[in-house]
Amino acid sequence: MIKNIFDLSVVNEIIDRTNRLTTDTKPLWGKMSVSQMLAHCNVTYEMVYDNNHPKPNAFMKFILKLLVKNKVVGEKPYGHNLRTAPSFLIKDEKEFEKEKSTLIAYIRKTQQLGAAHFNGKESYSFGKLAQQEWTNMFYKHLDHHLNQFGV
């Protein structure tokens, strides 16, 4: 079972793991630097809070719901070296401390808003999601990339 990202103890664990990252932390797999990974994780929250990424058109949203949604919001963990959506590709180098503090702020904001806020909330790509789907998506993605960097 995926841990509940709306639980304060889970949030504190994720933040503690995030704070163990340094600018010198190397990935155990994949090509991203640690600052790129943090920026990559921030995209999920930017899509929820900032509306600064292009939304998929109706056809693309249908395809995403059909082919991708269950992998993203389901219980099964991600494998290594999976392809990511274009919006999540971080090609340039990012500022480590800025990306880390932004991610921690997003994680805290999400927990403070709580599960009820997200239950039935419209996702950028997948339509309305139940609170368990939101927690699966948020936690699974963070856990995957923190594991990628050995924390």
Give a structural overview.
The chain has 151 residues and is an all-alpha fold. It is 55% helix and 3% strand. The protein has seven helices and two strands. The protein has helices at residues 8-19, 34-49, 58-67, 69-73, 96-113, 115-118, 131-148; strands at 122-123, 127-128. The longest helix is centred in the C-terminal third of the chain and has 18 residues, at 96-113. The two termini are 20 Å apart.
Low-confidence stretches: none
Derived from helix and strand composition plus strand pairing, the structural class reads mainly alpha
Give the overall pLDDT as a whole number: 93
Summed up, the domain count is 1
- Could you give a short account of the major beta sheet? 2 strands, antiparallel
Summary of the model, kept short:
This protein has 151 residues and is mainly α.
Name the descriptors.
151 residues, 3% strand, two-stranded antiparallel ribbon
Strands, helices and their partners?
Blueprint: H1 8-19, H2 34-49, H3 58-67, H4 69-73, H5 96-113, H6 115-118, E1 122-123, E2 127-128, H7 131-148
Antiparallel strand pairs: 1-2
Helix pairs in contact: 1-5, 2-5
